[in-house]
Design a protein that fits this description.
Layout: H1 24-58, H2 64-68, H3 82-113, H4 118-131, H5 135-150, H6 155-179, H7 183-191, H8 196-224, H9 228-233, H10 251-259, H11 264-292
Helix pairs in contact: 1-11, 3-6, 3-8, 3-10, 4-6, 5-6, 6-8, 7-8, 8-11, 10-11
């Protein structure tokens, strides 16, 4: 050690850890944070105003009769939209039965079986395009494919149209969930002698289940609020559904029809149906968020 170097007992000066409120970066951060909160509150004003109107206007008309009765005629009082709730549930159920198996098997091919093939790249690109595809064009396509062929509007055609809208959401979410499964888990399964099918069914699907279910719930939430495709496929009916090959009612079309009528009773029912539809979509979105945070 060099003895010529001076040795001092002065304490080491550490930088101050106290926040300087008037420092330039602190002021800039505070201004940007406040601006972000203000803009977020301003942007949420239309949302909260609509929710308030739905609660006030729709909540006052929402009762058991409205949830179970058939739609009233022009000058008739009372009535409800029970057939529209049933029709919406049936068509969403059909769409789920069609889109979920196809979407999951497609995601297995895209994520595991052959993710780098030209077919996989093309399918992935088309799925992303379909996420922004105008829903009315989906209705026109299914109208030409099913309604013209069957010579009638039907719940089946409506379910197929909603399935086409759900499919890209299910495919992309399921693929991402499978890709996120750790490679070590798959390699360990292969090392134990598992076949590719066993790895998919015993490791990949159970591990990626929360992400897959989230995609399914988000797809259902999107399909529940669609109206344009149903105008071309399911149309509307004033009666309860008795066959999948006949026109059926839905909440979105009932709202569209009743909101333009000059009768107070129908307008009140449109508000109540809007509240029910918003609550359905809200519950589905909250369920998707909850499922996405779970670990199975």
């Amino acid at each position: 050690m060099n003895s010529s170097m001076p040795v001092t007992d002065a304490p080491l000066r550490l930088p101050s850890l106290h926040r300087a409120h008037f420092e330039a970066r602190t002021l800039q951060s505070g201004i940007l944070t406040a601006s972000t909160w203000i803009l977020a509150l301003v942007a949420s004003i239309p949302l909260f105003s609509v929710i308030y109107m739905l609660l006030v206007e729709g909540g006052s008309r929402l009762d058991w009769e409205a949830l179970t009765a058939l739609p009233p005629s022009a000058f008739e009082m009372g009535g409800g939209f029970g057939n529209a709730i049933v029709g919406t549930g049936v068509m969403i159920g059909l769409a789920t039965l069609i889109s979920v198996p196809i979407g999951i098997f497609s995601a297995i091919y895209l994520a595991i079986l052959d993710p780098d093939s030209k077919l996989a790249h093309t399918a992935r690109f088309l799925a992303k395009v379909l996420t922004g595809f105008p829903s009315v064009l989906t209705g026109v396509f299914v109208y030409a494919a099913l309604v013209v062929t069957m010579k009638t509007y039907s719940a089946l055609a409506g379910g197929v149209a909603l399935a086409v809208l759900m499919l890209p959401t299910v495919v992309l979410a399921a693929e991402q969930a499978m890709v996120m499964v750790p490679k070590k888990m798959k390699d360990a399964a292969f090392g134990m002698g598992c076949t590719r099918a066993q790895v998919i069914w015993k490791v990949v699907l159970p591990t990626g289940l929360p992400g897959i279910l989230t995609g399914v719930m988000l797809g259902i939430a999107r399909a529940a609020g669609e109206s344009a495709p149903l105008l071309f496929t399911a149309l509307f009916s004033n009666y309860f559904l008795s066959s999948l090959s006949e026109p059926t009612a839905s909440l979105s079309i009932l709202i569209f029809n009743f909101s333009g009528m000059p009768y107070d009773n129908q307008i009140e029912l449109a508000w109540a149906a809007s509240l029910v539809l918003v609550l359905i979509v809200l519950v589905l979105n909250i369920t998707a968020r909850f499922i996405g945070r779970q670990k199975f």
